[in-house]
């Protein structure tokens, strides 16, 4: 659980410094108007001392000061990166960003498709106010798209679709319409930290943490495994603190773990939620970014029967699977008409332009391009980049978790923390940043074990190679700012040859090479 910033400022013990990417922030939130009147020493599970807001910003309301506090805290690391961003020609000693979860591998494919003539269309209806749920032509294409790629046993219906300008807006809207002020969602940790802001800044909704750990307790268990027993424990603890839990948030595939839930696990979680009358928000934003064929992904919409369809709400967006995080397109699928209508009402503030809606409909209906061009090439490039970073980590003797989905590897750097503290984790993160590589540290995901970091690998070969070189320098005690050398002036280390060659072959634009098919 987290406590909200109070009115007199002092730093929280759980906030050890700036978070390191745009998609990472610290978790302190609560109802500003009512809950902030609680006694200052109150502590909730998983939180250090309460945080109190400065009154220096006299132009802002208490809400505004809290919102600004989130921004200042969460964006500091990201601003540092932008002030010294790596550029191959203009700033070769700048910061390499391996912290933000974006797919930067397929711009060539996307730019060609989005530049084709069928994307360029203007008609009066696209320049006028739309149905706030989204134009019907787009909702129809979204329903067909999700039916096909989620492997729904029955056709999904466009009246159950709402489109918004991004997953952040959708989280915010759902939190606002599902929860009263001060109520909470259960969420397994480690988790994508920005959800804290998404549910708090408008809705004043809290998160109740379901803490997972790396311990393997049996043959059928895995590190950071979510179980119904852990969900029950977290729910009881929240109730014991007087916090009303209204729902459960699941991310599948999971960020930052890359976990993919089995159909049996999904059913167990949904049955748990139904037993306690909890809403379930299932974020499937990485569903088409499962690049290992051996990993069987199952959307919640593929289940033959949902235990509680009126309380099950599914999210998807193009930001990850199609590498369009700047385009801002997300969709909600829910059979609950009241929820759909309430979220649609908020689309007055979070809607999409008609021109973008037209382009998205054209993209989603182009099944031939998606299946024959984009997805095979995207998966091959993701797999090649993942292979490279995995081999680099193995060469350094570093354990990691990665399950063939998403853009990241969950890396265990605990052996570099002599005392095993979050203070040491932050110091190590700063050493990486000082050596011009930006990573994401575990505390920003509310990981309860110090020393875990998220490495994002979905980047171009030369940046990935240079970033891992800088990581190696920090971990081997040879920190220095490494510039990107000209290829003719460098010799690849012997333990990097195969992965570097794989990068070179797989990331080059054009048809997939034979190596990428392996």
UniProtKB/TrEMBL annotation:
<keyword id="KW-0663">Pyridoxal phosphate</keyword>
<dbReference type="GO" id="GO:0042802">
    <property type="term" value="F:identical protein binding"/>
</dbReference>
<feature type="domain" description="Aminotransferase class I/classII large">
    <location>
        <begin position="121"/>
        <end position="457"/>
    </location>
</feature>
<dbReference type="GO" id="GO:0006520">
    <property type="term" value="P:amino acid metabolic process"/>
</dbReference>
<dbReference type="GO" id="GO:0030170">
    <property type="term" value="F:pyridoxal phosphate binding"/>
</dbReference>
<dbReference type="GO" id="GO:0008483">
    <property type="term" value="F:transaminase activity"/>
</dbReference>
<dbReference type="InterPro" id="IPR015421">
    <property type="entry name" value="PyrdxlP-dep_Trfase_major"/>
</dbReference>
<dbReference type="InterPro" id="IPR050478">
    <property type="entry name" value="Ethylene_sulfur-biosynth"/>
</dbReference>
<dbReference type="InterPro" id="IPR015422">
    <property type="entry name" value="PyrdxlP-dep_Trfase_small"/>
</dbReference>
<comment type="function">
    <text>Does not catalyze the synthesis of 1-aminocyclopropane-1-carboxylate but is capable of catalyzing the deamination of L-vinylglycine.</text>
</comment>
<protein>
    <recommendedName>
        <fullName>1-aminocyclopropane-1-carboxylate synthase-like protein 1</fullName>
    </recommendedName>
</protein>
<dbReference type="InterPro" id="IPR004839">
    <property type="entry name" value="Aminotransferase_I/II_large"/>
</dbReference>
<comment type="similarity">
    <text>Belongs to the class-I pyridoxal-phosphate-dependent aminotransferase family.</text>
</comment>
<dbReference type="InterPro" id="IPR015424">
    <property type="entry name" value="PyrdxlP-dep_Trfase"/>
</dbReference>
<dbReference type="Pfam" id="PF00155">
    <property type="entry name" value="Aminotran_1_2"/>
</dbReference>
